[in-house]
Amino acid sequence: MASTLKQFLLGLVVFCVPLAAMADGSAASHSGSGNTYLTGSEVRINQAVPADLYAAGGAVVVAEPVAEDATLAGGRVDVMAAVGQDLRVAGGKVAVDAKIGGDLLATGGNVSVSPASRVGGDVMLAGGEVRFAGQAMRDVKLAGGKLVLAGEVKGNARLYGQDIRLAPGARIGGDLVYASSNPLSDQELALVAGHVTREADAPGRSRNAGSGWMHPLFFISMLACGAILFLVFPNAVKGTEQAMWHTPLKSLALGLALLFTLPPVAILFMITVIGIPIGFGLMLAYPLLLLLGYLCAALFVGHAVAHALNQSGKTGTGWQVVFLASALLLFSLAASIPVLGGMLVFLATLIGMGAMVQWLYRRYRGRAAGAEVLL
Predict the structure, then answer these.
(1) Is the separation of the CB atoms in 90 and 71 below 8 Å?
(2) Which of 65, 213, 340, 371 has the fewest CB atoms found within 10 Å of its own CB?
């Protein structure tokens, strides 16, 4: 089993090498199709992007138009130029002041959409504080702690938060469904053209939910898989943790790139008869990559907890399992926090996945260099 998994991981490098080479070396890369990939402490788009844009950094600023989709992640993300199709953003502070041709999906500690913004598709925003003041041509869904809707919604709206407010300039052309501890006032309800429904609680917070992150079977399964991963591939775990520690932004960029490019690449392979086995292989690799990313992130957090408690010197297998269990419990508790907690766990999973790909690439490059020396 171990040899089979090792062969699979090494084979996966064939797909991951171009992405890892970009992250390991230069800060920018352009594909043949016109897609642009950027990473760095500060990323600023000062030239128009003819196709898709993938960018991650401490600060990301989009100052020139993006023709197609844009996927962005950073401590602070500012979108000040038009995006032709969908915009997906994750960051500590997200600000959108632009026209979006397709859907807008954004999550972060603070998310704001300016009055000058216009979204042609659906709007889905989540965060600690969320403010939408633009124009949405279709439906809007907001979730978080404090929500302010100050813009125009042509379709229906769903609002889930602790504190919800409809500003005087807000307009909802369709129906409104909301869940909050405080009901909306009559003045706010008058801004809704359709029916208004107040739910008792937000989705996913039912007290008798029997499944999810805190389910004992899920916890035990992840603990067993993580222990096996550590025992069978200790070098891979160590190399992945080093990549997460030294290059977290590059790891996140790689994770995002794999998340959005692996499925379409698999579909392209399956269109051709010769590429069908490769396409199916990539589709099978997709959930496995997410699982490995989650486990690598958990192992990293477990060792970080051990270091914080001055217990990092305990390297026995039993202690490693204890550290992993503590990290899985932290992940479970974090994921139980509405919206923001799940986002943090997901970002950690992407960083773990990208870090693993970096380790695979460096291992592959080291073997290739060794083979050249022997020749």
Answers:
(1) no
(2) 371
Residue 314, pLDDT score = 64
Distance separating alpha carbons of residues 55 and 252, to the nearest angstrom: 10
Residue 194: DSSP 8-state = S
DSSP 183: P
- What pLDDT is attached to residue 245? 85
Q: Where are the beta strands (DSSP E) in the chain?
A: 28-30, 36-45, 53-62, 70-79, 87-96, 99-100, 104-113, 118-119, 123-132, 135-136, 140-149, 152-153, 157-166, 171-172, 176-179, 196-198
From the list 212, 174, 211, the residue with the least C-alpha distance to 196 is: 174
| Phi, then psi, of 48 in degrees rounded to 5 | -60, 140
Residue type (1 letter), 194:
G
**CA 252, CA 73: separation in Å to the nearest integer?**
8
| pTM of the model as a whole | 0.56
What is the rounded CA–CA span in Å between residue 286 and residue 302? 25
Q: DSSP for 78-137?
A: EE-S-BSS-EEEEEEEEEE-SEESS-EEEEEEEEEE-TT-EESS-EEEEEEEEEE-SEES
Q: Which residue is it, tokens 């305990």?
A: 314
10 Å CB burial of residue 54 (0-12, 13-18, 19+) is buried
pLDDT of residue 368: 54
Q: By 3-state DSSP, what share of the chain in percent is helix, strand and coil, each rounded to 5?
A: 45, 30, 25
Amino acid at site 318: G
Across the beta sheet with 53-62, what order do the strands follow? 28-30, 36-45, 53-62, 70-79, 87-96, 104-113, 123-132, 140-149, 157-166, 176-179, 196-198
